[in-house]
Amino acid sequence: MTRRYLSLIIIVLLASFLRLYKLGVNPPSLDWDEVSLAYNAQSLLETGRDEYGNRLPATIRSFNDYKPPLYTYALIPSLFIFGRSDFAVRFPSAIAGILTVVITYFLAKELFPNFSPRGSRQATPPRWPEGLLGGETISLLAAVLLAISPWHLQFSRIAFEANLALLFFVLGIFALVKSLRGPWWLVISAASFGLSLMAYHSTKLIIPLLVVLLAAPHWKRFLAHKKSLLAAALITLPFVIIILLTVVQGIGQSRLAMVSLLTKDELLDQSIQRLESDNLSVFSRLFNHRYITYTREYLGGYLDHYSPNFWFIEGDGNGRHHAVDHGLLLWWTAPFLLVGLIDLFQQNRTSRWVLLSWFIVAPAASALTSGTPNSVRALFFLPTFDIFIALGIVKVVRWLKTSPHPKHLLWLGIGLYLLLTIANIGRYFWYYYKHTPIESAPDWQYGYKQMVEYVESQKSNWDRIVFTTAYDQPYIYVLWYGNFDPKTITNSGEFAKGFDKYTFRTINWTEDQKLPRTLLIGTRGEIPETGKNEWQVLFPDGSPAFIAVATNSL
Fold first, then answer.
1. How do strand 518-522 and strand 464-467 relate by DSSP bridges?
2. I need a labelling partner for 44 at 20 to 30 A (CA). Which of 115, 171, 292, 509 fits?
3. Cα-Cα-Cα-Cα dihedral of 251, 253, 258, 263, to 10°?
4. Which domain holds residue 112?
5. CB–CB of 287/281 below 8 Å?
């Protein structure tokens, strides 16, 4: 076994440990999207239908946001092997994360081989020297950086469709680059991009844009290989048909309608107010046209994703998307990221064009939505950051080897920076495992599992159970943790309001406490301290998550 493959195996083991260790425990609870994916996968496993009774659906209705289906189907073997567990729900995402690290290694190796700028082998010395500073080092560094990346770790440990989509997205890019020397790789690229389209909504914009950009400089080469091009087109066709069918049925746009900046009424209202204040003048109609307003908003949302504050300091503000007090990237990588971006312009034309196109297109879909920047919708930035950082590290090391400065000063500086790097990495993992599960528990809808399991064990004591909607979508938690059998119960489309003994709504304490033989489950804001037979589920910090009170005991 060569040293490079031994190094890769060690990196894969590291990536595996970081993605599988305490996978079912941290994050501290499944959020509602994870539970929805899980229950629909369990239903498909047992009945061949989703929760609404649709046979082998091409889209998962869920909370009427119609999720792409791939993660749900990927969950089926995991649930079959591991059973109904939090670990099983997140396992496919963890495996996708590990495989993405492996593919990143081979992609970086393909982008930085010992080739001339035009991609043909040359007899002259390669651009990168052999050994420590060779292209192999860039590949290994990119892989290890992705293995420990807070951004990638966060979503590899959550059942988020975007992480599965990222795997096939990166594989599609790798195969497309490989197709420049082996045209039949186009088939693998088409299949990979197609699977990515079936995994997450954002790819429906990102992939077409990126494929056009990457293929444009080589269109004559692709057209010269008509058989492989035709085969790739045939592979792509079923995915396109599925997407078009969902659009025709009016369900393909539902998620976009929920999050699109075009649905922000205040933007259009502002434009109208300015037009009216200017008496609908010609210039006002030109400068305050709604398309100008939307374009400005889009560009602002797009540039939000290139903010150092987003990358290194705060992330996107959603507690489920990053460790507390941390951004998406480790700060010690910032100087190398800058150096790597600059050094990219000195690399061969193919690697430069691929990485820059990728880096520019990555936030295009996320910028269309409100609430930018968004680290989930912009996950497709990865692993460009890690490749840039790897380039920067190699560039800095090359400079240090030829630096005229006294060696003892250089080693002192390197030593101090290594200590700061270790401290930064150590702090991140300490916060991720120690503080984040406690402080972010409310963001994860913590407490549903404990409350539902308690209620189901005592359900015969009450005629009715009123469950608060303060934390959203309680019905799916009741279906999942209540172990309701998909073979005997089908969502009528009204389950969000109630089913079985359950009613889901806001607790009205004044009126609800008068209901006979009823269990009320709410928050402390809804249920005052009665001092009588109440049962609580506490957040990890000791504050109440849910309070349950039986009216017949008041």
1. parallel
2. 171
3. -140
4. 3-436
5. no
pTM of the model: 0.92
d(CA 387, CA 312): 17
Is 12 exposed, middle or buried (CB count within 10 Å of its CB: 0-12, 13-18, 19+)?
middle
As a whole number of angstroms, the distance between CA 94 and CA 104 comes to 15
Looking at 400, 417, 436, the residue that finishes a domain is 436
Q: Give the single-character DSSP code of 138.
A: H
The residue among 436, 462, 480 that closes a domain is: 436
Tokens in use for 119?
């991609």
One domain, residues 366 and 465: no
**Mean pLDDT in order along the chain per 10 residues (554 residues):** 84 98 96 97 97 95 93 98 97 98 96 55 39 74 98 97 98 96 95 97 95 94 92 96 82 60 59 62 60 82 95 94 96 97 90 96 92 94 96 92 82 93 97 96 96 94 96 95 95 96 96 94 90 84 94 76
Q: Are 128 and 364 in contact (CB under 8 A)?
A: no
Indicate the number of domains in the chain. 2
Distance of alpha carbon 204 from alpha carbon 361, whole angstroms:
12
Query: Measured between alpha carbons, how far is 204 from 280 in angstroms, rounded to an integer?
Result: 38
